[in-house]
Amino acid sequence: MTIVIAIDGPSGSGKSTVARAVAAELGLPVLDTGAMYRAVTLAALDAGATLDDATTCATIARASEISVEDGVTMLDGRDVSREIRGPLVTGAVSIVSAHREVREILVARQRAWVARHGGGVVEGRDIGTVVFPDATVKVFLVASEDERARRRHRDEIAAARAVAVEEVKAALDRRDAFDAGRVVSPMRAADDAIVIDTTNLDVDSVVTEVVARARSSEAR
Ligand code: DC
Predict the structure, then answer these.
(1) pLDDT (tens digit, 9 = 90+) per residue, 14-50?
(2) Which of 84, 90, 124, 174 could pair covalently with 33 via S-S, beta carbons 3.0-4.6 A apart?
């Protein structure tokens, strides 16, 4: 049986942390699909493309060789792991990822990645709804706005990017509203997803719950 764990939710909800821990526990590889959208966005910015132009962005996506493995993102042979987390890409990624044509290309690559790896933990915004509607376990993580802004702010400081927490919160709100409000594959919990509020939860208890669900589905 191929095990696919879908982990969706807004930024700062704890997806990456939970995905990595669940993957380690179950011995599965993990795919960060946000990194793929970020890599295409970087390629579009580098090419000086008009980001609103779906056809151009799709052409760039098709031509870009992207690999996301073990936390390292490569774009056309270049390690862009750090660059894709910078403010330019973060400010533009919602526009590029809203294009249906771009999504079709990346969704096909995400499915191929899971087929190649024989399963995996996949994190994103539309994994349980669109990419893997038959996933073994679907989780949708949420957390309060303040807590998510605090976590993202911590990431920014750790990456030596000085920015005020209010600024992080405003950017996060804008991006989440855009990701949830877009026409194509909006961010939302699948009807059969377990919704977990991580505001006051430690990572271990979330991981324990997801792993238990995966093991019981596997046993069935
Ligand atoms: O998870 P992240 O913050 O790195 O994702 C970056 C952006 O990519 C996010 O604002 C929306 C988009 N995204 C998406 O549309 N679908 C996904 N499956 C993953 C990310």
Answers:
(1) 999 999 999 999 999 999 999 999 999 999 999 999 9
(2) 124
Judge if the beta carbon of residue 94 lies within 6 A of ligand 1.
Answer: yes
Distance between Cα 219 and ligand 1 center (Å): 32
Q: Is the predicted pLDDT of residue 213 greater than 90, yes or no?
A: yes
How many whole angstroms from 90 Cα to the centroid of ligand 1? 9
CA of 201 from ligand 1 middle (Å) equals: 23
Q: What is the DSSP string of the chain?
A: --EEEEEE--TTSSHHHHHHHHHHHHT--EEEHHHHHHHHHHHHHHTT--TT-HHHHHHHHHH--EEEETTEEEETTEE-TTGGGSHHHHHHHHHHHT-HHHHHHHHHHHHHHHHHHTEEEEEESSIIIII-TT-SEEEEEE--HHHHHHHHHHHHHHTT----HHHHHHHHHHHHHHHHH-SSS-S---TTPEEEE-TT--HHHHHHHHHHHHHHHHH-
Domain extents in the chain: 3-206
The residue contributing the CA closest to ligand 1 atom 20 is 34
Mean of the per-residue pLDDT values of the chain: 93
Q: In CATH, what class is 3-206? A: alpha beta
Among 125, 139, 182, the mutation site with the greatest number of ligand 1 atoms within 8 A of its Cβ is: 125
